[in-house]
Amino acid sequence: MKMLKYSFGLLASVLILFSSCRDFVEPNIPYTDFDTGAYLRTIARTSTTFNFFDLTNSKFALTLEAVDAEDGNTVETVEIYVRHRRLIPGVGLEFTPSSGDNLVKTLQKTDFAPNSESRFLRTSFEITALEAIQAVGLTPADIEGADVFEFRLVLNDRFGRSFTNTSVNNNVAGAPFYASPFQYNVSVICPSDLAGTYDFVHTSDYCGDATITGQTTWTAIASAPGSYSVDDAAFGLWGECYGDPWEGTVRISDACGKLTMSGTDTYGDSYSMTVVSANADELVFDWINTWGEYGTVTVKSNAGKPWPAGLR
Question: Which residues form the signal peptide (predicted)?
Answer without folding.
Answer: 1-25
